């Protein structure tokens, strides 16, 4: 059941403006997740290009280490751009985040490999991934706040689901690009220049997103703060105030399944199937594509349900489904049968979609406008850095030590337990006014 606060009114944008806002948010999420997906799907190739020959397993761990280090900078970007969003506006923070992301992603596509620049190429790759970490850390909360604060309360999760679906679609496109290239190019060409193509595609996408975002007005919630003279001078200080401690604690725990599940079930999946279960690289991409396609379709459907019945029922159902299905799903993957593997990917993708469809509305609705994006960024990005970006590195290293192929299933299921506890303790927030909430 939705809370009584769901009847509280909220000034929102016109339908035409809301459509533009939703599109702008979706483009940013697409570019953000496109890079991470391409990096994850091509991790095996990147390891060959940027590290010396003769230690493939170690090179792969280092490749995922660079992937993980970029996530350490997400909380930094989240706080810096979150404070900018709360003090200057959601739109400027969104524009800056997208510019940094698209530029860094295209830069990776231009980097020389280890054979040309040695350790210098590795350090440059690390630097560009750090820039991406900063940009993504600010993008998530600014873009989602931008969409959510423009949306009518009765359709907030549904409209916010399109950027979310855009992120899984980005992974699907990255997956398809990697599959097409690895299937059509010989290994030598792939290692020489083919791997660069997906990264360079980010440049024109960034230009389009930049143009759209520059044309938009800021959100009704932020404009109301400006009109009332209530823009926070130090939103980070307000985040740690005594009256905000409970919400902040929930903000660190709620994203556990989102963080672990997204990167384990989608980004890490092709490399896991290739390196640990002896699937071909193309087969691993196909299984991941099944999971992504099913999740992309299911996300708006679950979001619409949450607008009607509340966030908590959808989130709890998704957590329970993941806890129950994770190990059986990975046992199906272990069989080596492509039909069963694709089925496992599809089922896990749909189960995860329930969580993915409501995590951002829940985070958005936890906090008042004057510190919303700062608090949201801090909780979401710290958890993502610990459980998301580090997941491929942790699981690859543990596999070398234990040879246990069910480790990803246990990892995701345990993260679902944490999220379920936080969702149960959280008050229902569906329909909450984002301007009147203080």
UniProtKB/TrEMBL annotation:
Keyword Ribonucleoprotein: no
Annotated ranges, domain Major facilitator superfamily (MFS) profile: 21-430
Transmembrane segments: 36-52, 58-81, 93-111, 193-212, 250-273, 285-302, 314-333, 339-358, 378-399, 405-425
Cell compartment(s), UniProt: Cell membrane
Example GO molecular function: symporter activity
One Pfam family named in its UniProt record: MFS_1
A single cellular component GO annotation: plasma membrane
Matches recorded under InterPro entries: H+-coupled_symporters, MFS, MFS_dom, MFS_trans_sf, Sugar_transporter_CS
PROSITE patterns in the cross-refs: MFS, SUGAR_TRANSPORT_1, SUGAR_TRANSPORT_2
Membrane topology (UniProt): Multi-pass membrane protein
UniProt entry keywords in alphabetical sequence: Cell membrane, Membrane, Symport, Transmembrane, Transmembrane helix, Transport
The UniProt record lists the keyword Transmembrane: yes
Sequence similarity: Belongs to the major facilitator superfamily. Metabolite:H+ Symporter (MHS) family (TC 2.A.1.6) family.
Name of protein: MFS transporter
């Amino acid at each position: 059941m939705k809370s009584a606060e769901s009847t509280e009114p909220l000034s929102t944008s016109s339908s035409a403006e809301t459509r533009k806002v939703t599109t702008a948010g979706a483009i940013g999420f697409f570019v953000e997740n496109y890079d991470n997906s391409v990096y994850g799907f091509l991790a095996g190739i990147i390891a060959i290009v940027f590290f010396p020959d003769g230690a493939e397993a170690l090179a792969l761990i280092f490749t995922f280490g660079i992937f993980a280090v970029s996530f350490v900078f997400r909380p930094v970007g989240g706080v810096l751009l979150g404070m900018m969003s709360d003090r200057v506006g959601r739109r400027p923070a969104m524009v800056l985040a997208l510019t940094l992301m698209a530029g860094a992603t295209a830069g990776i596509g231009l980097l020389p490999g280890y054979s040309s620049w040695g350790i210098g190429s590795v350090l440059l790759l690390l630097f560009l991934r750090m820039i991406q970490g900063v940009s993504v850390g600010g993008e998530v909360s600014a873009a989602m706040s931008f969409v959510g604060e423009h949306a009518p309360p009765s359709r907030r999760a549904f409209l916010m689901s399109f950027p979310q679906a855009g992120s899984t679609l980005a992974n699907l496109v990255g997956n398809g690009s990697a599959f097409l290239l690895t299937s059509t190019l010989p290994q030598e060409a792939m290692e020489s220049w083919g791997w660069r193509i997906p990264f360079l595609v980010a440049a024109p996408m960034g230009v389009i997103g930049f143009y759209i975002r520059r044309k938009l007005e800021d959100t009704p919630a932020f404009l109301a703060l400006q009109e009332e003279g209530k823009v926070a001078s130090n939103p980070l200080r307000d985040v740690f105030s005594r009256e905000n401690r409970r919400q902040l604690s929930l903000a660190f725990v709620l994203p556990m399944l989102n963080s672990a599940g997204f990167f384990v079930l989608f980004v890490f999946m092709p490399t896991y199937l290739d390196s640990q279960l002896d699937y071909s690289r193309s087969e691993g991409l196909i299984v991941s594509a099944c999971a992504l396609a099913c999740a992309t379709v299911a996300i708006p459907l679950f979001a619409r349900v949450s607008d009607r019945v509340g966030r908590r029922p959808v989130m709890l159902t998704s957590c329970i489904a993941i806890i129950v299905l994770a190990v059986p799903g990975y046992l199906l993957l272990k069989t080596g049968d492509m039909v069963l593997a694709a089925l496992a990917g599809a089922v896990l993708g749909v189960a995860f979609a329930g969580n993915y469809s409501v995590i951002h509305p829940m985070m958005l609705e936890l906090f008042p406008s004057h510190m919303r994006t700062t608090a949201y960024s801090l909780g979401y990005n710290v958890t993502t850095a610990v459980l998301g970006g580090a997941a491929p590195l942790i699981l690859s290293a543990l596999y070398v030590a234990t040879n246990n192929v069910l480790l990803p299933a246990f990892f995701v299921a345990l993260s679902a337990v944490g999220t379920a506890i936080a969702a149960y303790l959280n008050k229902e927030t569906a329909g909450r006014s984002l301007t009147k909430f203080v």
